[in-house]
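FW: tagging you since you asked about this chain on Friday. Here's the raw sequence from the shared folder, copied in full. Didn't touch anything.
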Amino acid sequence: FMTGLLTHPAEMHAFLHGIAHFARGVFDRYLELGVDGVSCSEDLGTQRALMVSPKAFRELLLPEYRYCFENVLAAGKTVWFHSCGCIEDIAADLAGIGVSVLNPVQSRANDLARIKDATHGRMALEGAIDTAVLALGSPDAVRREVARVMAILKPGGGYICAPDQSIPGIPEENVDALWAAARELGVY
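HL: got it, structure written out here
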């Protein structure tokens, strides 16, 4: 992909816009059907950084996302944007084009306070409960994890408590501990 941007920039821009145009058409059809919102699933981050530089994201991808979501947002609908990995460098950009909810906000890959500061009041954050703690920790460890994340993401609103990944096999007692802690600590 990046090599193509360097060697064939016009073609790559046209390619990306073609994908965005198709997605916009799908979203327009959803609007005709009366949906309350749309979801876009893109994995832009690795566990340590973005897959492209923030500059490349802003120049190449962000305008296409803006185009994709334009009609959805103009209709007053919600845009849920999924991206795994470290995306703290572009969270504010996504909020800036009107993304309503960022999911799943991976706890180990991002600075949660930085994402909260960059998006507060402009975009809800969903996830951030470390799945490794859910899968391998005790119910007490799960409760501590929920409390830790809530202390960072809950103040001022805009946080949806949820695991930062969906994996099978989480012990039932840990799932119960997650939702009990969320109910207790998540009241605004």
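FW: The longest strand covers residues 124-129.
HL: agreed, and The longest helix spans residues 9-33.
FW: great, closing this out.
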